[in-house]
Amino acid sequence: MKLVYFAWVRERIGLAEETVEPPAEVRSVEDLLGWLKGRGPNYDSALAAPEVIRVAIDHEHVDHADPIGAAREVALFPPMTGG
Amino acid sequence: MKLVYFAWVRERIGLAEETVEPPAEVRSVEDLLGWLKGRGPNYDSALAAPEVIRVAIDHEHVDHADPIGAAREVALFPPMTGG
Amino acid sequence: MAPEPVVPLVRILAGRIEMAAEIAALSGSGAVGGVVTFSGYCRDEGGRLEALELEHYPGMAEREIERIAAQAAERWPLTGCHVLHRYGLVKPGEEIVFVGCASAHRQAAFEAASFLMDYLKTRAPFWKREHLKDGTTGGWVESKDTDSAAADRWHRL
Amino acid sequence: MAPEPVVPLVRILAGRIEMAAEIAALSGSGAVGGVVTFSGYCRDEGGRLEALELEHYPGMAEREIERIAAQAAERWPLTGCHVLHRYGLVKPGEEIVFVGCASAHRQAAFEAASFLMDYLKTRAPFWKREHLKDGTTGGWVESKDTDSAAADRWHRL
Description:
Chain A is an alpha+beta fold.
C-alpha cells in the first residue's frame, strides 16, 4: 500500500511518500492512523491529533471509520485551505 | 412642468417630452395620469392601463399616490427591462 | 467601528465594457480577497435577433444605479463595487451589463452582486427593444414578474 | 426532459489564469444570458507577504474539482462551468482561483458559483503556506470553521 503525505503531515513525518504493509488487523482508516502513529516520534508528532487528519483513498475523501479495503494509495493531509 | 416619456409610452404619445401646466386640482401622480389621459387618443392609448405606468419625479421613482409637489421633471415609462 | 462604505463606480456607456480592466481594477491592491462579477449578455434568440436597442433615461439612469450601489456598499463590507450598463445598440453575444463586487468575505461579494442585479433589473431606467434580422423592429421586451420577485426577496432578509 | 448537464472545464495550473479569455469562452455563443465569476486573490497581509505557496495533491486535485463541478452542473441549469486553480508560488495581488458559471438564469449562475467556491475551500486538496518578505517561511494557513459552515449550508437547501 502506497502512503502519500501533504503539507505539515509530510513535513512532520519527513517523507512525501512510502510503501507500507500494515498487519492484517489494520482494517479501518482509524486503525491505520493508530498503527502509523506507533512507528516513531516523527509519525507520533504528525498524528498527535488524529481527528484533524484528513484521509483520501485512491483520490476520494473517506471517513476515519471507513475500511481501507484494497486501497492502492492512501493520502494523509491536514484540512484543506485551497480556493 | 416638464414631462418626459420613454419606450412605448413615448411612441404611443408621439413625443419624447413636452411642457405642460396642469390645473390646480391635479395634485397626485394619479391625478396627473388621469388628466393626461384625457388630452387625446394618443395619450389615451399610452395610458390605457395607468396602473402599469411607472413614474419618476426629478429622477426618483414615486408611487401613484405620491403628490407631484413642485416637480420640475416628471417621467412616464413602462416597467424597466435593463440589466 | 465599521469602516466607511466604499464609493461605487457607476458608468453608463454606449461602447463595449472592458471586463478584464474592470476585474483588474477591482482586484488591484493586494488587499482584496475575492471578486464576484456578473455579466449579462445579449442572446441571439435562435438567430432571429440582429441587435437589442437599449433606451435609457439619461439623467436618471446613473443616479438610480448610484443609489442602488450605495445601498449595496452600506449593507455589505465591500472594498470595491463597479456597475457598468450599456445603452444603444448591442449585438448578440455582446455584454449589456457588468457588476463587480470585491470583498474580503466571498459571501458578501456574492450577495452584493446578486442584490445589485436584482435591483438593476427592476429599478434602473432602461428599456430593451428587439431589432430582427428580417429588417423589422420587434416589440419592446416585457418585464418579468420573476425579476420583481427576485428584488423583493432582499426586503425579507 | 431536462437537458444533459454541461461538462465542466477544470484546470489545475502553475501559471497565471487568463480571466478575460475564460469569461469570453463562457459567454461565447449568443445563447448565454449571464455569467457569474468568482476570482480569489493572494492578499499582501499588510505588506509582510512575499508569496503564497500552494501545495496540491496532483492526482486527486483535478478529480475532486471535477466531481464538485459535475455536482453543480447537475443541480443548476448551467450552459458553462469553468474552474481553474493555481498551485506553486502566487504573488500578492495575483489570482489563486477562478470559477465561472454561465446560465440563462442569473440566480442559478450565482448559486452554482457560490456552491463551487464553498466546496473548493473544504474539499479540494490544496494547502497554502506563507513565504514572508523577511526571508522566512511562515506557517501553513489554517482552515476556517466558517468555510465548513459555508459548505454545509448546501445540504440544507
